[in-house]
Prior knowledge:
Chain A is mainly α. Chain A has helices spanning 3-16, 36-43, 52-74, 76-82, 84-97, 112-118, 127-144, 154-158, 181-191, 208-215, 240-250, 255-262, 273-287, 299-302; strands at 44-45, 167-168, 173-177, 222-229, 232-238, 290-291. In chain A, strand 4 (222-229) and strand 5 form a beta hairpin. In chain A, helix 4 (76-82) packs across helix 5 (84-97), helix 6 (112-118) runs antiparallel to helix 7 (127-144) and helix 7 (127-144) crosses helix 9. The longest helix of chain A has 23 residues, at 52-74. Chain B has one domain: Alpha-Beta Barrel (TIM Barrel), CATH 3.20.20.150. Chain B is 41% helix and 18% strand. Chain B is built from eleven helices and 13 strands. The two termini of chain B are 18 Å apart. Residues 283-297 of chain B have low confidence and may be disordered. At the A-B interface, helix 1, strand 1 and helix 3 of A face helix 2, helix 3, strand 5, strand 6 and helix 4 of B. Strand 1 of chain A pairs antiparallel with strand 8 of chain B, so a sheet runs across the interface. The complex binds fe (ii) ion. Fe (ii) ion binds at residues 146, 179, 182, 210, 252 of chain B.
Amino acid sequence: MSGVLVELQKRMAAAVMEPLTRNETTRRIRRDGVAMEREAAAFIKPNDSLSSLERLEIYNRQYWFRLYSSFEDDFPGLQAVLGRRQFERVMRAYLDQCPSISFTLRDLGSRLHAWLTNHKEFTAPKSRLAEDIAGLEWAHIEAYDAATTPPPTPEFFANVTEETVFQLQPSVRLLDLSYPVDDLMIAVRQDAGSNDTSTNNATATRKVSTLRRVANLPPAQIWLAVHRQEFTVYYKRLTPEEYRMLTAIQAGNAFGVAFEAAFANSTMDEADRPAFLQECFHQWAILGWLCEPEIPSHEFARTGELQ
Amino acid sequence: MPANRFNGFTDYGVGIGLRIPHYQHIFEQKPVVDWFEIISENYMVEGGRPLHVLDRILEQYRVVQHGVSMYFGSAEPLNREHLRRLKNLVRRTKTPWLTDHLCWGSVDGRYTHDLLPMPYTFEAARLTAEKIRQVQDFVEIPVAVENVSSYAEFHLSEMTEWEFLNEVVEQADCGILLDVNNIYVSSRNHGFNPLEYVNSVPAERVAQIHIAGHSEFKRYTLDTHDHPVIEPVWQLYARAIERCGPTATLLEWDDNIPSFDEVHREALKANRFLHKQEDLLPSFPSTTEPILEEATR
Ligand SMILES: [Fe+2]
């Protein structure tokens, strides 16, 4: 592989991905002390109307504007919670520290929840609320285009024992939240002019002031399933027992283990549990959440090495 | 000439890009459109609405896949997960050929999501051609590479952009998606004669042509895909058609997207050049390709 080409691409990418100034221009001095004008001139030719740095700046700005726009589309709820200024600080820092590692911008926010959890200084005093809403927004994106697994055969259901292992429908995302952010998200999406909660990334102008009022939510612990029916994403509140049982199933545990997990710290009367369980299974079956475990595909392995 | 081995011996007419704001119109009005171009990455997902919409489109229309992030020119190896998903989508759409850009955009697994220009060196041409071949072998359909708009040139370059394009497609034995708007935009930014570029392209490799609008600023020109096609770009298109014959043509309109009818009307303006060229063609097959086309059916 060409060392010259590798070096050029590394230098150019580093320059393009260098954060912009507050005025959205290219920094004159990079954070590592390198003068950007000299750096640009080292590999980019100037022309009659633009210097090397100005030519680089077109790409530098283009990079950041594209990322900002994608991030803003994906996390309108986070913006509503934090307000524009704090949201921008989060956005710039996150995108700088967690640049895209996927060929698709859809995955841009995949590391946001974990990043927020480790960088509470960016979201104080609303850290937990910000983490909850970002987690919900990411779950929504994931549920929107997740695979659909067909329902199990009646025979499979008829032979359920304690050893049975289910797989949860891939679109189901389970969240343990400290704030009722499901209501907030629905308000955000309605405010964006969308009553279809499945529209990933509604881009209409958001009335931020209205949203901020909604955003001053008092805390209340909720357990939530984000799931998709046909092509629409829904939020469904769960009891803590349901949440624990579904989480255990999703982790690949047999039904008996999931059952134990559900009632580990439960205050539910022992006598009520069988009926509760039956009702849960009935609902989950109707929603198509329970599936037979899939046999993993090794298709790609058979096609051989590429490089 | 229109049908060649780089576009699967097809003879597609004038298409437009499939864009979300037009979904409703397309499903309700079922307009007659020769074909749609889709951005592959938007449908390289596991399920849900994107694939549902695509399947509905495929029931009624011909679709060609256009990618934006294969980065043939990136010095790093191809992304296997990307390829796997791309091939799954190829099976779904039955696209006769697929396209992506002659550019780079990722380093050490980090993606810029931009179409960054290549240094026009023999070394870069060799590496890029090698990666195009790998993709072509993997997806098992013809691949055509698109020339990009650019705003920078490198000291390293050893040849012109069109010489580089020639070098790459010869070595890769692949097709060309000739974007005449990109040629125009780059010619404004780098001060070359766009006609010289069009005249230097190996016409027999052109699988498809892109037309689009752009934005002129005081000191540079940006490829914004948010305007109608300007007359000088139509002139480059006319020359390309003169050289290549009537070729599958697609209008790109990605920002400030007007109504479906307006976009389609703008695209169909290409017909005045395509039909003029058809009138000039002799009534008997001028090449062996139409016969090949029959044979492959
Ligand atoms: Fe193009």
